[in-house]
Structure formats: C-alpha cells, structure tokens
Amino acid sequence: MSSDLPNAKGSTPATDPSQEVKFYNDPAKRALVFQVLLVLVIGAFIWFIVSNTLSNLEQRGITTGFSFLSQEAGFGIPLSLIEYSEASSYGRTFLVGLMNTVLVSFLGIVAATILGFILGIARLSDNWLIAKLSAVYIEIFRNIPLLLQIFFWYFAVLRALPSPRQSMEFFGTYLNIRGFYMPAPVTEAGFGLVWGALAIAIIASVLIKRWAHKRQDATGQIFPAGWVSLGLIIGLPLIAFVIAGAPLTFDHPELKGFNFQGGMTIIPELAALWLALTIYTAAFIAETVRGGILSVPHGQIEAASALGLPKTRTLRLIVIPQAMRVIIPPLTSQYLNLTKNSSLATAIGYPDLVSVFAGTTLNQTGQAIEVISMTMAVYLSLSILTSLFMNWYNKRMSLVER
Predict the structure, then answer these.
(1) Residue 170, SS3?
(2) Is residue 377 classed exposed, middle or buried when 0-12, 13-18 and 19+ CB atoms within 10 A define those classes?
(3) What is the 3-state secondary structure (H, E, C) of 267-316?
(4) What is the pLDDT of residues 123-180, one digit of tens each?
(5) Whether domain 90-164+268-397 has CATH 1.10.3720.10
(6) Residue ranges of the domains in the chain?
(7) How many CA atoms lie within 13 A of 38 on its CB side?
(8) DSSP β-bridge partners for residue 250
(9) What is the model's pTM?
C-alpha cells in the first residue's frame, strides 16, 4: 500500500524533501526567468539603437534638441487658421500643420458620419431603386484606393476649373482653379451679446431635452424638444443680433490683378481631400450602420408596427438606439482611419502636419528624429483622444436594464 495514503487519524505523512520540484522544472519560476531575460534583451537592443544613433549624429555634426522650433521658417503656407507669415518660427509651422490636420479630420468625420448613416439606412430601404443605388455607391467607392480618389477630385475635377478671370459666380461667391471665394463675416462691437445668447440657447436646449425625456418616462407624452431647441438656437441669437444693432459686416472678395483679394477662401487642396475622405469613409460607415440595424431583432420592428408607430419614428426611437451598441465600436475604427488617412494630403500639397512639418520643416532643418517623433506623437494623441471620447459615448449609449 502507498505511503501517501492517510493514516488512521486522517493525516498525510510529510513529503520527502528529495522529491521536491527542482527550480528548472517549476513552470512559474522558469517563466519568470524567461521574462527577465526578455526584458534585458529588449533593453540592450534599445540601448544599442540609441547609442548608435547618437554616435552617428555626432560624427556627422548634427545637433539634437528642439531649439530649432524657435528659428525662422522662411516659407509660406497657403492655409492657416492662425496668424502666420514667412517670418514665423518652425514651432508656428507645427501649430499650423496640426490645426489643418484637425480641421480636415473633423470636417471629414462629421460629413462621413452623416452620409454613411443615410447610405446605410437607404440600403435597407423597401424602395428597390434607392437600395440598389446605395449598394452601387458602397461597392464602388470602398473598393477604389483612397489616394486615387484624392487624385481624381483634385486633378480631374478641381484643377479643370476656369482661371480667376473666368471665375464662376454664384450670388457674390466665386469658384475658380485657385479656390472658392466667399464673403468673410467681420464682427463688430456688441456681437458678444449674440454669442452669449447662443450659449444660453444651447444650455436651455440640453435642459429641455432632459426634461422632455423625464416627462415622457413619467407620463408617456412626447414633447417636441427637437423643434423647441432648434427654435431657441436660431431665434434667441437672432433676437440678440437685432437688439445689438446688427453688429456684423462682410468682407467681399474682389478680383485684383491675377487673383481675388479679401473674403474667405477654401483652397482646392482642402476641398479635394475633404471630399475624398468623406466619400471613401462613408462607404465603410454605411456597411457598419447596415450591420447594426440588422442586428436588432425583427420582432422589435413588428411590435412597433403593431402599435401603429410610423417607420421614421420606429427607426429613430427603437431601431437606431439598439443598433448603436453594435455600430459604435467599428465606427470608432473608421474615425481613426480617417484621421490617419488625412496624412495622404501631402500627395496634393494640402498643408497638413505631414506636409509642412514632417516635409518642409524636416528638409530645411535636418532634425529628423525630433520632427518625426513630434509628428508621430500628434497622430497618437489624436487617436487616443478619439478613442477615449468614443468609449465614453459607447458607455453612455449602452442599453441598461431597469
């Protein structure tokens, strides 16, 4: 009989020390050793790369650091949301490129979301023609490389526009090969009252919407919070505008020499990049929306139909809220892809971060490590901020059982 069996009192004899698991046979200890060795190897590799890079830079007389950001840039940028001139510093070019990247990314996300939701819903339409047209759009534009679409809009469409002297005029606006020129609003003293009224209208709209939801939960009665909010956001600033004496004028563009002066300009590079990003990303968002809607049990739609709800209200109040839990995660990926795809702007000369900072600034200063590191940090930060916001929104839109 084995000696490991319990004795009469129910106790087990002590284990023989000679039979203990050796160190090299213990999986936990062996795994710890391998992890330590892996960390040491990675650390040695990083140390080798850094030391080798610093040695090569020293041999070639290249200084490191970010002091170059205070030097004069000496080149112009065709689009800037902040004050900029050729006498500005390289740090200023970084800010200009960053803001231009955020501008086209934000505009693209908004437009692609709206268009994608429309196309995704249209593809499930009972109307055969609408559904097929939506399907054709999706299959065409999501299967053509984005760079080719950018080239199409820029070279085949916008570069075929007339010269400034033969500009196409639409109610005081002008369209030509150099851009779209429109009157620029110029605020005067007293316009702050309008901004204050707008802020109050937005806050009041949020409060009214919350009150309407609570009222509907308690009584079942629907309050037109959307129309009331729209009236407040439009009407209250308009009243303040009239009371303040209409403190707003317009700077109209005028043809002087070979180009227009004054007003506000949308350069063709921005328009081409925005159109391509919007149309391309909207095709993927449409499929995401379609998949989210199809994930909602059909019994929900049948129940709403049995209650007499119209299709638009069924879609808005029942289907979309439930589909959002499926739509939001892949939608986040599309937003991230659009932001990163905006770096293709350098192919047509749009002055984004890659073009003016990782391109021109890098070529002039030779500070490759610093410039590339800053550019990578910007895209990483934008992606993380987008993910954090969408994760918060996903948590807010998740269905909670009561």
Answers:
(1) strand
(2) exposed
(3) CHHHHHHHHHHHHHHHHHHHHHHHHHHHCCCHHHHHHHHHCCCCHHHHHH
(4) 998 899 999 999 999 999 999 999 999 999 999 999 888 888 888 888 888 999 988 9
(5) yes
(6) 90-164+268-397
(7) 6
(8) 185
(9) 0.82
